[in-house]
Write a structure and sequence with these properties.
Layout: H1 2-8, H2 13-25, H3 31-60, H4 65-88, H5 100-119, H6 127-156, H7 165-186, H8 196-215, E1 226-229, E2 240-242, E3 245-247, E4 258-262, E5 268-273, H9 282-286, H10 300-303, E6 327-331, E7 343-347, E8 350-353, E9 357-359, E10 362-366, H11 368-380, E11 388-394, H12 396-411, E12 416-422, H13 430-435, H14 462-472, E13 477-483, H15 492-500, H16 515-534, E14 540-545, H17 569-578, E15 586-587, E16 597-599, E17 609-610, E18 621-622, E19 635-638, E20 645-648
Parallel strand pairs: 5-6, 5-11, 11-12, 12-13, 13-14, 14-15
Antiparallel strand pairs: 1-4, 2-3, 4-6, 7-10, 8-9, 16-17, 16-18, 19-20
Helix pairs in contact: 1-8, 3-4, 3-5, 3-6, 3-8, 5-8, 6-7, 6-8, 11-12, 12-14, 14-16
């Protein structure tokens, strides 16, 4: 029974201060959980009163409307009280559930059906049969109340019983008692056509529907992503109280921040953090190497009916997509700080070549942390208790997924949680860590986890963070995906190259010079991380694909690419979610073979296999892995004709 239920399951300075105090003062329950719990209790009591009203009516023939009206008055008062209390704590509980009227309509339909089913076959004018129907409905009332009260107690503070053992036990006991009472009642003269199994199933279905519409917001659309745009700096409601802090979301140019959400058909949650470069001084921020704002026009496809945010795992129509039926929250990136920053920086003027190559001083708001926290706050107030949470992101978003997946373990202690960093392994230079990393203001907001919050940022690394997080949250599965030579100016090799030659603008385009160094460092990090984690919880894996393609999440190859003998990434991710034995660390062998492309339509040979633009006269090679064209070491062509391959030779 439990599994069935689980799967489906400021205003001003004064109000801001009150909300901040309330969040700090709360012991373990979050306001949205408290509100959901109180609404479930109200629904439990109403279900009990209405079915007992039917019970009394069956026995006495009296009008039950007075009892319904009384039950509704109590329900309405409790429902409104729960919403008012949540509002004083900074949570819009009215938005996260069905309205009181809608919930009553949902319950009334199910309760009327149960009452009619029990009455079928009974002659209520016959005293014995009327008494029988009355007792059966009274038993149903008790079961309905106990099912929902068990959920109410569970949802109030998920950390108290994350496995749901107490809830399971209470619901199983309610079911057993109902079964026993039904058998005892129907043993005597009681010709109802209803069966205990049928009525119990209807009660469970009713409970499931109530829980779902209290814990999974019905106000989030299921046919497109909705945009949630936060008030701009200086507007009412911009400052938000959350977890004892006040956050001020914004993009790096101080424009309003937006994120997106879509409801699925399963009570599971995908958190996706967008990628898109990074900057840490005048040169990189002045170029610029990442977006300055969240332009809603750029996300028109996302918010259109049926819209997705790309191919691969972002395609909601692919039958093999493990996330196609999940709730999804898409967290855009406009802060240039890999979703970690919490600082405002005035980068000074930079003159590389006077009169020719100059970069003016620039003010940058690195507020990726606040932006991500805004999305986290919204998520826990609209998807209260998903059975599964998968946290991921590509490139810069992989770092966002890494750091923000850690507190999500506290937000969702009863959920099965997985984190996959897509092309964000954290291969950086020590010089960057010591001289530029601090510009983002990361240290003040590191998760309160031993091995992370108590370690200086100059000694931090993605491997050390993952190792500490895996130790602290042993039930969560952690992973990294990367191509062996993750290339291009926007790829991991490109940024590693920039970090290796800071200030040398002319070397940026020669990213391939750092391919071998990146590969060696990345592979060693993966091996070392798995070795360190396996000593304790063994909950980390890596996937190293062949070639130089940067990011996989939105690539159709996730469903069928087995280059180098690796399983399709979609199969590997599914095994990760299930905790299956097939979820093992894998590396393509050989891992230095690049994926070819196809000649563009305007080529003399459209659709032909290609490795270079030269293979496509009058056109271009499309869909191939990043590489220098013409080829330069360590990239080289092996073989000739249609069977030729580009490989990376680091010997």
């Amino acid at each position: 029974m439990r599994e069935m239920l689980k799967v489906s399951r400021v205003f001003g300075v004064l109000l801001l201060a009150l909300a901040l105090f309330a969040v700090r003062a709360g012991a373990g329950s979050y306001p949205s959980n408290e509100c959901a719990s109180e609404k479930l209790e109200a629904a439990a009591n109403r279900c009990d009163k209405l079915l007992k009203g039917w019970s009394i009516g069956a026995k006495t023939g009296k009008d039950r409307q007075r009892r319904i009206d009384q039950a509704d008055r109590v329900f309405d008062a409790k429902w409104a009280s729960a919403e008012e209390k949540a509002a004083t704590e900074g949570v819009d509980c009215a938005e996260m559930t069905l309205s009181g009227a809608e919930m009553k309509a949902l319950m009334d339909s199910a309760i009327d059906e149960i009452a009619s089913e029990v009455a079928d076959g009974l002659d209520l004018g016959v005293k014995k049969e009327a008494n029988c129907g009355s007792k059966l409905l009274k038993s149903a009332a008790t079961m309905c109340q106990k099912l929902l009260k068990a959920e109410s107690g569970f949802i109030d503070d998920l950390s108290l019983d994350p496995e749901g053992a107490s809830c399971d036990a209470a619901q199983e006991k309610a079911g057993s008692q109902f079964s026993s009472q039904w058998e005892s009642t129907t043993r005597k003269e009681c010709p109802t056509t209803a069966t205990e199994e049928e009525v119990a199933e209807k009660l469970e279905t009713l409970s499931e529907a109530v829980v779902t519409n209290v814990t999974v917001s019905p106000n989030v659309p299921d046919d497109a992503f909705m945009a949630i745009t936060h008030p701009a700096v200086g507007e009412a409601g911009h400052a938000v109280a959350y977890q004892g802090d006040v956050i001020g979301p914004r993009c790096q140019d101080s424009s309003p921040y937006s994120f997106f959400a879509r409801r699925g058909t399963e009570n599971k949650l995908l958190m996706y953090y967008e990628g898109g470069g990074a900057c840490w001084e005048t040169l990189t921020c002045g170029a610029p190497l990442c977006k300055q704002d969240v332009d809603l026009d750029e996300y028109a496809g996302l918010t259109a009916p049926g819209g997705g945010f790309g191919g691969g795992f972002a395609d909601p129509t692919h039958p093999s997509n493990p996330f196609k039926d999940w709730n999804i929250v898409y967290v855009p990136y406009c802060s240039c700080d890999v979703h970690w920053g919490d600082s405002a920086v005035d980068y000074p003027e930079l003159v590389l070549i006077p009169g020719t190559l100059e970069f003016p001083a620039k003010h940058v708001e690195h507020r990726g942390y606040d932006n991500a926290k805004l999305a986290e706050k919204w998520v826990r107030e609209h998807f209260v208790n998903p059975s599964d949470v998968f946290v991921t992101g590509s490139s810069a978003g992989a770092y966002g997924a890494t750091i923000h997946s850690i507190p999500l373990n506290e937000v969702y202690p009863a959920s099965s949680i997985n984190m996959l960093g897509d092309a964000g392994n954290g291969v950086i230079t020590q010089q960057f860590l010591e001289e530029q990393f601090g510009n983002w203001g990361v240290e003040q907001n590191l998760p309160d986890v031993p091995g992370i919050s108590d370690v200086p940022t100059t000694q931090q690394s993605i491997p050390s963070i993952i190792t500490a997080a895996a130790r602290h949250y042993p039930k969560t599965r952690w992973a990294h995906y990367t191509a062996a030579y993750d290339g291009g100016t926007g790829g991991q090799t490109g940024f590693y190259h920039v970090m290796s030659y800071p200030g040398f603008f002319i070397v940026w385009e020669y990213w391939w010079d750092s391919s071998c160094a990146f590969n060696a460092a990345m592979r060693q990090q993966a091996l070392d991380t798995e070795a360190a984690v396996s000593l304790e919880n063994d909950n980390y894996r890596y996937y190293i694909a062949s070639g130089s393609e940067h990011t996989a999440f939105g690539n159709p190859r996730v469903y069928d690419d087995t280059t180098g003998g690796v399983p399709p990434l979609a199969d590997w991710v599914s095994a990760m979610i299930e905790g299956a034995p097939a979820w093992t660390s894998v590396e393509a062998d050989p891992f230095n073979v690049l994926f070819p492309g196809e000649c563009s339509s305007e080529s003399d040979n459209p659709g032909s296999r290609c490795n270079l633009n030269a293979d496509c006269p009058n056109g271009q090679c499309r869909g191939d892995d990043p590489k220098p064209d013409p080829l330069r070491p360590p990239f080289e062509l092996v073989g000739s004709g249609p069977d030729a391959s580009v490989v990376v030779n680091c010997q």
